[in-house]
């Protein structure tokens, strides 16, 4: 696939990574974007505000587990490519209730593959050659690393959580549809993403928001678990690069080369917030000028001396993988992609965004997510797993 004016069908386009991809494609290409999302608790149309008014963005509220509905979408929009990001993605939630992960991540992917295959078989030879199916996955399918080593594309799969197992299953399905039926697929496995618009069940936004509200910052075990961090805008660029330049049947690992212990990540967040005059509250506004970040607005009712004092350790979750780290040599050398943001610059931008967008935060903290939090976390933010 190599034409900027193509029609791309994106599943999960109202989610965290999906919405970043939609915003990137609308801002940087001439593509027509068909955004397919069920709008579960983690899907949020507010995350698409920058793209919502574009005539090249079409939103379709559809469940990928509804095969007839998918067929109608393919017939209606005639896509040149599929970028499949729709998935249940939170490990804690998969431990508490794995059934939805099996349904969406495995059955939903199967439905999408079969719909795409049927559609692809009916295309003329030129359009068949151009068509691509890009499946977006995670480094968690590889299992846990020791103190040394990196995940590469040939690393054997050893998923250790229901979430990881469901994504590993979907990866295998995609690969099988290529080798058995010839469907031109691409697979990406990425490291931990962070950035604006991320749902507050994930580590970085949860810690930012808890700290701003003076709540405990709950860390599993001793906070020694290591993850490689990737700024979401860099990931969106990587996915577009793989779609345009990747070789069908090939897997591309996408990483930030930015390994951090969870305790290091949380301490970095606390240090940034401490620099912002050690204040919290809905009225806080952060701006950036030549001298760096500046804080204005209302202060908290009870500001903390240092956000570091809020860090607390909770019992580790079952089967918690020790370390993930990505070898992304292939995408860098073969496709010419590399991240633009360091962890330090990306984290500062992320903290600034959350501080400046209390209304977005308020909107996502209602409904199903709010109920799940009430069930699984106590009033001070300590996890129950």
General description of the model:
With 385 residues, the protein is of the alpha/beta class. The chain has a domain of 238 residues: 3-Layer(aba) Sandwich (Rossmann fold). It contains 14 helices and 14 strands. Strand 2, helix 2 and strand 3 form a beta-alpha-beta unit. Helix 3 packs parallel to helix 5 and helix 5 packs parallel to helix 7. The chain is globular. The N and C termini lie far apart (44 Å).
SSE layout and pairing:
Elements: E1 7-11, H1 16-28, E2 32-37, H2 49-52, E3 57-61, H3 67-77, E4 81-84, H4 91-96, H5 99-121, H6 125-130, E5 132-138, H7 162-181, E6 185-190, E7 192-194, H8 203-212, E8 217-220, E9 226-231, H9 232-245, E10 251-254, E11 259-261, H10 262-275, E12 285-289, E13 292-296, E14 311-314, H11 329-335, H12 343-356, H13 358-364, H14 367-376
Parallel strand pairs: 1-2, 1-4, 2-3, 4-5, 5-6, 6-10, 7-9, 8-14
Antiparallel strand pairs: 9-11, 12-13
Helix pairs in contact: 1-9, 3-5, 5-7, 8-10, 8-12, 10-12
Characteristic terms for this protein:
globular; 385 residues; 41% helix; Rossmann fold; 3-stranded mixed sheet; 7-stranded parallel sheet; 14 strands
Secondary structure tally: strands = 14
| Proportion of beta-strand residues | 15-25%
Number of helices: 14
Give the radius of gyration.
21 Å
Classified by CATH, the class of the domain at 7-197 and 230-257 and 322-340 is: Alpha Beta
The biggest beta sheet is recorded as: 7 strands, parallel
Unreliable stretches: 278-302, 379-385
Strand order of the largest sheet: 3-2-1-4-5-6-10
Helix/strand/pairing category = alpha/beta
Order of helices and strands: EHEHEHEHHHEHEEHEEHEEHEEEHHHH
Classify the oligomer: single chain
CATH architecture of the domain at 7-197 and 230-257 and 322-340: 3-Layer(aba) Sandwich
User: What is the CATH topology of the domain at 7-197 and 230-257 and 322-340?
Assistant: Rossmann fold
- At the fourth level of CATH, the homologous superfamily of the domain at 7-197 and 230-257 and 322-340 is NAD(P)-binding Rossmann-like Domain
Mean pLDDT: 88
**N- and C-termini, Cα separation:** 44 Å
* Silhouette: globular
């Amino acid at each position: 696939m190599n034409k900027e004016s193509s029609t791309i069908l994106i599943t999960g386009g109202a989610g965290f990574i999906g919405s970043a991809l939609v915003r990137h494609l609308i801002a940087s290409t001439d593509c027509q974007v068909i955004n397919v999302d069920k709008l579960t608790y983690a899907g949020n149309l507010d995350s698409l505000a920058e793209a919502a008014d574009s005539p090249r963005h079409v939103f379709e509220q559809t469940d990928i587990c509804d095969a007839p509905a998918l067929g109608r979408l393919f017939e209606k929009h005639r896509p040149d490519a599929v970028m499949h990001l729709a998935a249940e993605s939170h490990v804690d939630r998969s431990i508490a209730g794995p059934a939805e992960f099996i349904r969406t991540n495995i059955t939903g992917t199967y439905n999408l593959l079969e719909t795409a295959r049927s559609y692809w078989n009916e295309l003329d030879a030129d359009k068949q050659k151009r068509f691509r199916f890009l499946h977006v996955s995670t480094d968690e399918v590889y299992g846990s690393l020791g103190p040394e080593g990196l995940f590469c594309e040939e690393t054997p799969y050893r998923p250790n959580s229901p979430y990881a197992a469901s994504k590993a299953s979907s990866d295998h399905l995609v690969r099988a549809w290529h080798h058995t039926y010839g469907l031109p697929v691409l697979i990406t496995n990425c490291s931990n993403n962070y950035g604006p618009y991320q749902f507050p069940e994930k580590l970085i936004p949860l810690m930012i928001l808890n700290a701003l509200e003076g709540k405990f910052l709950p860390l599993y075990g001793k906070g020694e678990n290591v993850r490689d961090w990737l700024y979401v805008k860099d990931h969106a660029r990587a996915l577009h690069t793989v779609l345009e330049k990747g070789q069908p049947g090939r897997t591309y690992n996408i990483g930030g080369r930015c390994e951090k212990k969870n305790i290091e990540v949380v301490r970095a967040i606390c240090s940034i917030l401490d620099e912002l005059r050690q204040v919290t509250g809905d009225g806080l506004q952060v701006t950036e000028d030549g001298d760096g970040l500046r804080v204005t607005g209302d202060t908290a009712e009870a500001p903390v001396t240092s956000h570091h004092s809020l860090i607390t350790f909770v019992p580790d979750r079952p089967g918690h993988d020790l370390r993930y780290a990505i070898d992304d040599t292939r995408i860098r050398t073969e496709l010419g992609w590399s991240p633009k943001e360091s962890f330090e610059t990306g984290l500062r931008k992320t903290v600034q965004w959350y501080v400046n967008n209390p209304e977005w935060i308020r909107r996502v903290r209602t409904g199903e997510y709010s109920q799940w939090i009430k069930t699984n976390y106590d009033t001070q933010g300590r996890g129950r797993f």
